[in-house]
Amino acid sequence: MKKLMLVVAICLVTYSLSHRVATAQSQPNVIMITVDDLNQWIGPLRGHPNARTPSIDEFSRNAIVFRNAVCPAPVCGPSRSSILSGFMPNRTGVYNNSSNMLNSRLVQNNATLPEYFSRHGYHTLSTGKVFHGHDTANGEDVGQWAFDTYFDDPLFDTPDESKVTDSRINVINGQTPSPNLYPDGDRTKGLAWGPTEDRDFRNTGDYRKVEWANEQLRNGGGLQEPFFMSVGIYKPHVPWFVPQRFFNRHPLKNIQTPNVHADDLDDIVTTSGRPQFRPQRDFEWVDAFGLEKEATRAYLACVSEADAAIGILLNKLERSRFADNTIVVISGDHGWHLGEKLRYHKNTLWQESALTPLIVRTPEVRARTSQTTYCNNMVNLVDLFPTLIDLCGLPKKRNLDGESFTDMLDSPSTNVAGVGVTIGRTGVSVMSRRWHYIENTTPDRVTVNSQEFYDRRNDPDEENNLLANPNRLDSEQRRALGWLQRHVPSSFADPVASPRPASTPRHLDETIRPARAHLR
E strands of 36-185, at which residues? Predict the structure, then answer.
């Protein structure tokens, strides 16, 4: 009898172990690639005629490309906090880059995306800018505490100082131009570009990061499955310093600059009749010295550098044993202006800043398509959290703000009526496939300063603010406006405090990871 019981026990243990192995092997791996400040200037989205992104183009042939993906917030910190926590800024209180999501009570009580995967059997690993970085009392926080394995490496590359263009210090191609537009010392926000000091792409930060990721994918490398790998590509974030080879891909004489309308801001006025916006100083600086083509070229060169880095990683994945069982997501974190609306940079609620690429390939999508498939429905990057846990068969996390778009991956051509909400520091954007409503408020969100309403189909550059003449709205426009306005959040969490870090930091993981051991 004892022998029989021992045999049964051994069989049960063997079955349990084999069942766990089979379950682990049936679950797909995940590689999530986030490209900093990437707007829609990539080949599949045809956002710019000079865009050169062969790696993304090739990847998209077996993937779903979302034409109308919006960011949850139009600047790095709040957007990444939303994507990785699953909660919109109005619930976490993270509205600007200085606010660390860990100071939000909601985030303190809930697992982030990589933590959730780790708690459900995935090995999580990361490199590059995935979480937004912060100095804290416990050391530098770049989100390393959220992963089982993290590789840190500098983000910035060193420029050739003799060829730098920099609006902050009023230098063009290493020379000081005349006149000095801001003799009072009032600096611009900062645009800088030029070739790197080291011409070798293999010495750039983005290359080193994807090479580290490739090492994890090498056969026999000991990578535990299933895994969740997150890779942050830093370009095209400013400064735009990349090897000369990427500038060479975009001859200056061929560069087309975006449509810029000098009166584009005239129809956006406050309730008191004053202009809501003025041209940004970086725009004025570029315009004064006629550098529009140079700035456009520099951004495109950085997009090409990011694409090259992505290609190195994807090529390694294709040659690995993980190729047929890995979900791959390529996305930005928000968009970027290149002169549109008389500005550069991000952090606006216009479409240039709110829209960003999102491309998803699952093993099922890869198996059924060999050409780029588009989905025109509105999605939000905050939807990635519930979508990925759905695709990987993990337990649903029902308190998330996002909604799974797995059905769109199965049937991308099905029209789904929805909106994408983007929350800025002083306003809200609500966008549908055709319409776009923007509500500009005071920082306390008590008073609405101005409103904007655009017909995206008939006014693709969003030049004509229909609310400049609200009495002229027809019945269709009024219905659409009311529908979008109903999606503006009714409540906003208080802004998360941004405490100054202590002068003597402790080790970050030793203080943060134990405190997050019992999250939902």
Answer: 64-70, 123-128, 134-136, 139-141, 149-151, 165-166
